[in-house]
Amino acid sequence: MMRTRISRVAATLAAAGLLAGSVVTGFADAAPVFGSCPEGSVPAGSSAQCAVISVPMNHSEPDGPRIDLTVSRIAASGERHGVIFTNPGGPGADALGFWAQRAEVVPAELNAHYDRVAVQPRGLRWATPLRCASGTENAEGQQVSIGGGSRDAIKAACDAAQPGYLDTITTENTARDMDAVRAALGIDRISYLGTSYGTYLGAVYASLFPDRVDRMVLDSNVHPDWVWTEEFAQQQAAGKQRLDDLFAWIAEHNGDYRLGDTALRVYQNWVRLVSAQGGGWYANLTPPPASVADLPGELPEPLAELARDGFNGTVEQGGKLQNLVRTLISGGGSAQVPLVGATAVATYTRSFWPTFARAMSDANADPANVQRLLAIEGATATDPTGRFVFSAITCNENAVPGRPELLGAAIGTIASGGNAMDARADLVRAGLSCGSWRPVAEPVPLSGAALRTKPLLLQSRYDALTQYEGGPAMARALQGSLITVEGGDHGTFGRGNPTVDDAVLTYLRTGQVTVSHAEQAPLPTR
């Protein structure tokens, strides 16, 4: 519940239960009043303030039903040069606490001269959460599995609680929400920092509202031609490369961690530990530089069922396969084990490498000692509504048709003990993530032709979540300037990299980009 002084309209909305997820109609716009933020949304002691802003559920029907968005704002500590909005990614990542969580790591100049605003995306908690109750809803509000099964059944479950809301969970509507917030705050032009999926959201915003953009920084970019199936398939190859880099770094520091003096030996230790924790086929990763064709190839259900009985096209079988694919591309889920979950985080955040190596060393010495691994895995945990929004956006607007014929290739790879990441890529490309869910919206054509100042794009060469090719491709689409950053950090700004941070600040001040290359951020002192 919001602990804040809010406008009469917002108070009425809260009293009507809108913050708990309902959709209402007929309220006029009112100037937002900022106060305390929802419990748990920003770090304790933060200077962030929050307000509730009402926007149309469907922007093509401005007089129709409305939803609530919570917005956080941190005022510039000095002379204000502008206002910078943000989105941290996902789709499905909470945004409200972004600036407050990074107050100590972003350059002081940004904190001093910019009001920092974050809009919680529609469908998430604190933003009229998407609710799709099953017929067997329990006291905790169990929802349907929004990414699997029949879309007709899913839509019926969602519409029972919030008629029409599911179809509005798209990037375009999220961008239009952001502009509605801009207007409600009385801002003529905004600057923007987007990371990961936030780059795509920013590109859509810039294409729809170019006259409302001052400066735009896009960090770790989605490939505009891979939305969405190919984007997630490409993550597998990128993740494998970064995993090899991680093993090689640990080997270079064998004196500290005692996990092996070559990347192959570290890998072999990793496989042994994953298997001991019950990771099964997740350990089947081609090591550097050898082959693992002789590794056991335990097939997880439902692939074992598919190998035995073939693909029958039933909703039940399709749902099982979709659940497996979602587990794979999310990097989490009950099928994984602590070491695998922590590894997924470490592959795209180099600052975690020393902590991860120490955690793996702890588990190597004592298999029961997985506390550090669990802490790393939990660093990127999200609220369950994030998974619902992820599925809704990616399935509502997926523009890459599935290729079911790749199912056989995936099964063959796993059964032969081959690279599990290759199998994951084939499963994703097969189209199982969305199954029978057909898109309801077409992606917005991206263009930067009308922007007053061309965007600045940052892209790590070995990013494990957004392949490097996404940076140049997005730069071409928006006619922006690209800075290539060495290494593989996912998110390069505010990581203690002076070249990157100075380039961003120069761009925000002047609109000019003076460098095209940066080394990777230094590792924190161990």
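[next item in queue]
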Amino acid sequence: MPSTFHSIETAKRSLFTQTAALNTTGHNIANANTEGYTRQTVKMRASIPMEAYGINRSNVPGQLGTGVEFDAIERIREKFLDSQYRGENTELGSWTIRSNTLDKLQQIMNEPSDTGIRKVLDNFYKSWSDLSKDPESVTARTIVKENALALTDAMNHMSKQLSNLSADLTSNVEAKSSELQSYVNSIADLNQSITKIEGLGDNANDLRDQRDLIVDKISKIVNVTVTDTDQGYNVNMGGQALVTGFAPTTGINGAFLQAAFASNDLQGGEVHGMIISRDQFVADYTAQMDNLADTLANGDISVTLPKGSVLPEGTVLNGVTYTGTNRTLQSDLTVTVKGLNGLHQLGYTQEEKDANGNMVAGKPFFVASNNGGTITAGNITLNTAIVDNPNAIAASLRVTGTAPTEELVKGNNTLASLMSNLKLNNFTSVSTGNKATIDSFFSSMVGQLGIEAQEATRQTQNSTALVSQVETMRQSVSGVSLDEEMSNMIKFQHAYSAAARFMTTFDQLLDKLINSTGVVGR
């Protein structure tokens, strides 16, 4: 049998439940713009009825209900969409970094333009052509010197920019490792807090939101997989554990992430993009620029020396040593020399003789600034002898007389002409053995960079679209709709008002029963 106050208790439960629903609606509305917030809902259910089935149950027909109650406040979230989002976010993080790095490399190359390496090379070759028109001109020699310095400065500057970019990427890996360590520590702390709260029977919804948001942020930095356990999230990067229950992995730094990349545990995210950018893109273009500089100075080239040219004493070409009277070529001679340096050493400087009275041969035109090391884009420089005295530039391949009265044919421009024509000569790459002009080597590098940058941009755009699509789907499930919440608020408000009216009605009935019965005849 129901008690006299049964309906009052039913109304009370309804008031409590609708109040909880209104409070939750207000919480949703307040956090409509909070990053990572998940819409919450009150799980209502009919409370246990008056009497269960049994031998001693009342004979009154019907199982009388006792109203409504709520057993939980839950988040509306889809784990599958979370997993999808994190996977796409990881790809986006990697491609975004790669695209940004390639954009910076394009700015460093600065091609096509009127101020890039190609323009400086053109000016260098043109200055040799001008010198060939007036080989005795000090002004023309000075212009050759200045254009050579401009070329080496441009290569040095580009090499320094590439080195700085590599160092920046290394610094960014360290910065991201610190950020990752902070996130990992936070997840371990949240695991502990959530476990304590939910051990009391409540859902730690807001703390779970914070934890999921941190995992989302980690997915932008590195690839992650998440397993929900009794002690909270276990977060892994490939086969490398980042968080195991309450225990975070410590010592996350650049070396840790580099090792994870080497072991293939690190397969995506911003750090992956940084390491790819540094160790592949920047390193590759640095090596290509170094090869370009060394090939220009020392790469094998085939040139034809005209009949009548006089080679410097002791010159060795094609296995033949030229000395004494056989220094003068009796016919055109096609030879292979070691780049611009080798060709320059076949000519003669202005009015300078050795101790035996022979005209002095040209010195190596380009040298390494680190005193004889391999020439790279970073250390290539003009020979100091030429910097100090432009007359050390060799332009002539002719002399008259013999030592000690040997004299330079000053008006001869044979070597200067050969130098100016190197623009069209094929050089043999020092590092690869491929043959092409210096312009072609550089154009190939610029073309490769353009294609790689285009592909990275395309992949970034595709990843951005996929992340946006998955996030839209996720928000359609978990996001707060103010229109829907306002509708719910009105619904819960009316339910609360009706429950209150229901309680008032029974209060009046009880008042009648208690205060107005048994008073007939008074």
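[queue empty]
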